[in-house]
Amino acid sequence: MRNNMWRTLTASRPITAAQFSYGRNFGNLARPQLFAWRISRLGPLRASRILSHSARCISSSAEKPSTIDDISQKSAISTEHLPVVSMDERKVSIGWDAQTWSRFHNMWLRDHCRCPHCFHPVTKQRLVNTFEIPTNIAPTRVAAMPDGLEVSWPGIQPHVSLYPWSWLQTNSYDPPMVNKDIKTEKILWGSKIEQSPPTMTYEEVMAEDEGGLFKWLSQIDQFGFCFVSGVPTTPEATEELSQRIGFIRQTQYGLFWDFTSDLAKGDTAYTTMALGAHTDTTYFTDPCGLQLFHLLSHTDGSGGATLLVDGYYVASILKELHPDAYDMLSTIPIPAHAAGEPSAFYRPNPPRGYPVLRRDPSTGELFQVRWNNDDRSVMSHLEPHNVEKWYKAIRAWHQCLTSPDSEYWVQLRPGTAVVVDNQRVLHGRSAFDGKRRMCGAYIGMDEYRSKLTVLREKFAADPMILANDNVPGSGRHIWHRAL
């Protein structure tokens, strides 16, 4: 029997202590789905790390890797332990062990060749002409090599492709084996987050080595928000802090805001009124990604406490307690508008808008919360039998949002900025009096994700990339998961 080192790993990662500490307890029952809804999962790789420059052989089945860290410590395998490969007129099959196989269509494999003739090693753009590949293409030979699957293709000029084993496992689709997207565990939180909120210092974030910047953006990715202390109380320093993440996104409110409660813009944010928990720019087709606030001063008055609510946490509670409401808020779109400025009138495309809870259609995972009842337009598209159900659903959502268990209130002080993921964390404020000066900016979600990905490449290298670091190329690795 073949060595079992390639056996599929299926054990899920345990819930972390941090996830429990901010969770919710119902009658002392440990309910993981209420403590921490794991929005994204990083499944373990299902094979050892393949390093062509190593000759060490793993021969004992008792040494099967069980975690990604274990896998990253393993070396290349000898030819006697290579996966079994076979081919027919339609597919190439790979046997990782006696029970685990992956199948790849011949067309798919040829289309994904990443030799320099088929994939530009510098620009990371495809060069192969997909539409010139014969629909009935079949390899002339397949071979299991220490570095990966070697496939020889027919043609006037025969072509040879090499696919790393770890890349094939990550991108296996028949059956799916590994989540190809690198994601961090989301830490869901309620009001108890006040005991230890994520916080960085201005000096850390602005350090040239970008280590503090990576930690800052990683905290935002996990928690949906993060404070930055020790920020100079000037618009210039705050704008520089914003640009540390990426380009500032200009809207009808300008590029970088520096405003008071003078109603200079047609929005209730420019008043002294209390604002309930909401996300901004629900009237945009693409809502703003990150939002940075910095209170520069507050004189001759009091109030104006900041409210933060984890939309993912609230959604997990809604899903548990009111599954019908969760489904309705995940499917019925809500139109929105921004019409307070005479020179602007914003509505999303399509005009009926998007659901409060947007989920990945392929996985069902929640990836966006967009809710602002103040900006909601007419719900004229509701089916008659859904009208009362819809109002019941948003009432349940509102009750979960405004529960003392969900609300985190904090009094911001000059010198402390806060960044929130506007597509996850809802914000609001209490009413205030006196004169308050606030500044801040929007940063696009794509810019933020791009910066985080680049920093992750620098400070938290993907084991799959390390496993194939002998492949020639310039800049970003050609076998990067996201490519």
UniProtKB/TrEMBL annotation:
Its cofactor is Fe(2+); L-ascorbate. Keywords: Carnitine biosynthesis, Dioxygenase, Iron, Metal-binding, Oxidoreductase. GO terms for molecular function: iron ion binding; trimethyllysine dioxygenase activity. Belongs to the gamma-BBH/TMLD family. One of its GO terms (cellular component) is mitochondrion. Transmembrane segments: none annotated. It comes from Amanita thiersii Skay4041. Signal peptide: none annotated. InterPro entries: AlphaKG_dependent_hydroxylases, GBBH-like_N, GBBH-like_N_sf, TauD-like_sf, TauD/TfdA-like, Trimethyllysine_dOase. Residues 86-168 form the Gamma-butyrobetaine hydroxylase-like N-terminal domain. Pathway: Amine and polyamine biosynthesis; carnitine biosynthesis. Its EC number is 1.14.11.8. Converts trimethyllysine (TML) into hydroxytrimethyllysine (HTML). This is trimethyllysine dioxygenase. It catalyses: N(6),N(6),N(6)-trimethyl-L-lysine + 2-oxoglutarate + O2 = (3S)-3-hydroxy-N(6),N(6),N(6)-trimethyl-L-lysine + succinate + CO2. Residues 196-442 form the TauD/TfdA-like domain. PANTHER family: GAMMA-BUTYROBETAINE HYDROXYLASE-RELATED, TRIMETHYLLYSINE DIOXYGENASE, MITOCHONDRIAL.
